[in-house]
């Protein structure tokens, strides 16, 4: 009864407009007061314990690296490179937007950061060339979702810490699903372009492509440095995040020279704000997650799901439906902290590969960023491109369908996820 009341209070506070972090803390505090024998002092203790992990230092470091690269002229050069490489394909600018987001995903690891950086340039450009505003925003939203799937993914870092898994393995596990998503999105863009009559640009010459690649090589190397550095064992995940920050500073200040020393204060402030939001959500979810554990609700949910069937695919279907509903009402990071402790016993009981299960959970929750009512990427691209939400949601349907298809594929064929980590570690 206690946990039901706390949950109702939590959703009531959300409906009232309170920030999700504060809503979780207040709801958990009410639950602790109602539950006899629990000292409310556990609330601040569990807030602190929610972020008491040295591995979490990778989160602000990768956020800072992404912010430096975005301010240092990387986005513009990646758009120029993508235009040279795929601008001749049907639906020219939509293909450029997806390719740019694919590379950006290997730099920031944040869907919101990628949507803001690419959307502010590409949505006005697509609208100017006659693309429907809702479609232009939908392409950016779908492309930005690649950020949390491909390394350095912040949600995968958090999952790895919670489940005691290798961050490097999870980074590699997201590569093939991320590429599958992007390939399908590009096919959808070609289909829409044929239907709507969106023209392609003349193909760039090989000399032009080579020149553009030379100008963009410092940005293109970032994902390679992250994966190769971690894979080779030369640096750890945390050290990789720090190295990329230094690399980004050198590129922005000394090579591209689009980043000025006087702007560094703004860069660090912006990265600090973004990191604070992420870490606060993790900290705020701590008391609620602790309350769920103390009330043994997680065990009951696990036992209830496991009682339905002992077939892994059936259980994965139930888990995916549950996470899909959760993704409709909660943002991905607090949902991860609240539900991963419930799901880990299910994964262990059925013998599902932990790497496969991690990518399934993260991808499912990331899909929640593409559909109402929360749909964070809907709001971000709508705000950046000044486009109403409903047209974006309608145009996102084909992208959403392909995302769900990839989710089904990695459930049925675990090798899609596990092949690369097992090959490399």
Topology record:
Layout: H1 2-15, H2 20-34, H3 42-49, H4 58-71, H5 74-86, H6 92-108, H7 111-128, H8 133-144, H9 154-163, H10 167-173, H11 175-196, H12 206-232, H13 237-255, H14 264-294, H15 297-306, H16 312-329, H17 332-350, H18 354-367, H19 376-385, H20 389-395, H21 397-412, H22 415-424
Helix pairs in contact: 1-2, 2-14, 3-14, 4-13, 4-14, 5-6, 5-12, 6-7, 6-8, 6-11, 6-12, 7-8, 7-19, 8-19, 8-20, 9-17, 10-22, 11-21, 12-13, 14-17, 15-17, 16-17, 16-18, 17-18, 18-21
Structure description:
This protein is mainly α and 425 residues long. The chain has one domain (41-424). 78% of the residues lie in helices and 0% in strands. It is built from 22 helices and no strands. Helix 6 packs parallel to helix 12, helix 7 packs across helix 19 and helix 16 (312-329) packs parallel to helix 18. It is globular and about 70 Å long. It starts with a helix and ends with a helix.
Helices and strands, in N-to-C order? HHHHHHHHHHHHHHHHHHHHHH
Q: Residue share in helices?
A: over 70%
For the sheet with most strands, the description reads:
none
Total number of domains? 1
Average pLDDT, rounded to a whole number, is 84
Oligomer status: single chain
N-to-C CA distance: 46 Å
Nearest-angstrom radius of gyration? Answer: 22 Å
Structural class: mainly alpha
Comma- or semicolon-separated keywords:
mainly alpha; globular; 425 residues; 0% strand
Describe the structure in brief:
By secondary structure, the chain is mainly alpha-helical. The chain is built from 22 helices and no strands.
